[in-house]
Amino acid sequence: AAPGRAPGGAPAPGGPSTRPTLVPREVGDGRTAVDEAQTMALLERFALAMPRRHLAHSADEAVRAAERVGRPCVLKLVEPLLPHRAKAGAVRVGVDGEEAVRAAWADLVREHGARGVLVAEQIDVDGGEELIAGVVADPVFGTRALLGSGGVDAEDADDARTLVPPYDARSVRHALDGLHVAARLRRIRPETGALAEELARIIGGLASLVEDTASPRLTEVECNPLLVRAGDTVVLDALAFVATDGDGDGSGGGDDGGADGDGANGGRGDAG
C-alpha cells in the first residue's frame, strides 16, 4: 500500500487527512451538500474508474475542457440544489466540437443560470447495468451502506439492500444476489466474485470519507450511477452531504438523498 493509505485505497487508520477543501451549500430540508465536482475529486484518492472531467466557469473554459476530455463529451450543470439534473434538462450529451460546446454552455446558462459546468468524457453505457452505492453515518454501527439498482429511477425501483461493516466482498456479494438486477449483473460479469471485490472497495472508500473527522464532516456519500461493465465498474456521478449544527452525532440523512443518477457521461437518464 502507498504511504498514508491502507490496502484497497482507504486512508490508513490514524493517518493524516489529505482531503481537499470543500465548499458545501444548503440544499433545503436542513441539509447541506457538496456538489458532484467536489465529491468526484474526493473519490480520486481511491483510484476508482471515473470519466475524465474538468470544471468550467465560462464558455472558453468549457471548450478547452472538451478538448482535454475528448469528443463527444457531456456538459452538466454543477448544482446540488437541483435533483435529477437529466430530468430537469440540465445535462447535455453527445456534445461534439467547439460550436456545440458553446451552444450547450449557452443553453445551461440561459435555462438554469449556470455558474459552473462539469465537462466530462462521455462513457458508453450500452451493455452495462447501473447501480447505486452509498454510505451514511450511523450512531450504532459507525456507518451503514446502501447497494441497489441505480439511475434516475433508483428511488422508485425498490431494489436495494442495506449493509453494515465490515464491507467485505462476501457481504457485498450476498447483497448483490438479493437484487432484482442480479441476473443481469451475472450476464455482464459472470465472475461475480470480482465484481463484489470492486464494489466492496468502492463502498469501503465511501465509508472512509464518512469516517474522516476533517471539517466539514461528511455524513453521507453516494455514487449514482455506478456503471457495471464487462471489464470494470465506473463511477459516473457522486454527491456528498455534510453535518450541520443539528448533526451532533454525525448521523446521516438516510438513503433517500444523493446523486442524480443522470450519468455524468451519457447514462440512461441522459438519453431521454
UniProtKB/TrEMBL annotation:
Q: Which GO terms describe its molecular function?
A: ATP binding; ligase activity
InterPro entries noted in UniProt: Acyl-CoA_Synth/Transferase (IPR051538), ATP_grasp_subdomain_1 (IPR013815)
Bias-annotated ranges (Gly residues): 249-272
**Region annotation (Disordered) ranges:** 1-26, 245-272
Q: Which domain of life is it from?
A: Bacteria
Q: Which residues form the signal peptide?
A: none
Q: Enumerate the UniProt keywords alphabetically.
A: ATP-binding, Ligase, Nucleotide-binding
Q: Can you say what this protein is called?
A: ATP-grasp domain-containing protein
